[in-house]
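Summary of Year 1 activities. Much of the first year was spent building the evaluation harness for sequence design. The harness presents a backbone, in tokenized form, and records the residue chosen at every position. We chose the following record to illustrate the format because it has been used consistently in internal testing since the harness was completed.
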């Protein structure tokens, strides 16, 4: 039986791919203006970014345990192997909660084939992991083969991103108030990456064009090969800059296999409008 792939809305995969590969997506919670929403259910990214530009300070919470348990129970009851790929445990408690729910389900269905996998990634970074896992599931790859692929992605996936306004990182405690003020005045944009499932600053540059160029340089430096891989770009309501980055990648590398999506509410609530992120494997997966 084909393995069911489950993810949550932090993976920022477009609906078209979710439908095509029968991926189940669970909603993270977004709290804004004293209202609570289910991400991509009753709030969309553009709406959230409008609120943020008007001064709202949204918060997020993990996928409700009841939804996780209900989804895993349904798979177990139907004898359906399932892998739930979660947002990094370094920035969300969803992974830990999902493991607890999995164990509860296994008490009732001890023979169920269920796994919870910590992506140690965010946004389209683990969206690419989910996408690859779902493709392999549809191709008939085994449960263990899919987990092996996910482990490769976890070990070799790179995240490089920048934000348009340091104020949002300030709110999240990622930069000091002085750094945010100086960055805004000097039009300094940080380049950040993810390591061991957590966000870290890399460099500070002046001007968007320099930042995009440096992001592509870093990708070329870190990747052993940019052939035969899918490159991901996600953006927080900035299609123009996302297109500029895509065009630059094609010009510099020749790779046209680029997936572009909008950053959803769960990640955008912390990074803010105008965020641009780049994802790729530093070592391509060997054909099995």
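For this record, the design step produced the sequence shown next.
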């Amino acid at each position: 039986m084909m393995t069911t792939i489950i993810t949550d809305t932090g993976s920022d995969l477009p609906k078209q791919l979710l439908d095509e590969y029968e991926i189940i997506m669970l909603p993270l919670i977004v709290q804004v203006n004293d209202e609570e929403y289910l991400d991509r259910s009753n709030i969309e990214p553009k709406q959230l970014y409008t609120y943020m530009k008007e001064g709202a300070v949204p918060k997020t919470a993990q996928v409700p345990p009841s939804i996780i348990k209900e989804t895993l129970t349904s798979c177990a009851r139907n004898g359906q192997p399932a892998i739930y790929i979660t947002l990094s445990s370094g920035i969300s408690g969803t992974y830990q909660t999902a493991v607890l729910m999995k164990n509860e389900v296994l008490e009732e269905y001890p023979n169920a084939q269920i796994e919870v996998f910590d992506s140690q990634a965010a946004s389209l970074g683990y969206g690419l992991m989910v996408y690859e896992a779902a493709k392999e599931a549809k191709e008939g790859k085994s449960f263990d083969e899919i987990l092996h692929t996910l482990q490769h992605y976890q070990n070799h996936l790179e995240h490089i991103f920048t934000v348009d306004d340091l104020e949002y990182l300030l709110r999240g405690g990622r930069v000091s108030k002085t750094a945010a003020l100086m960055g805004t005045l000097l039009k300094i944009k940080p380049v950040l990456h993810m390591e061991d499932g957590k966000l870290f600053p890399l460099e500070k540059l002046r001007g968007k064009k320099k930042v995009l160029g440096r992001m592509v340089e870093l990708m070329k430096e870190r990747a052993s090969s940019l052939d035969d891989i899918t490159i991901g770009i996600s953006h927080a309501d900035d299609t123009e800059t996302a297109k500029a980055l895509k065009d630059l990648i094609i010009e510099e590398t020749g790779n046209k296999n680029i997936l572009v999506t909008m950053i959803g509410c769960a990640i955008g609530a912390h990074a803010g409008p105008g965020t641009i992120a780049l994802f790729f494997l530093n070592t391509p997966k060997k054909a099995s």
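The longest helix spans residues 94-108. Quantitative recovery figures across the full test set are reported in Table 2.
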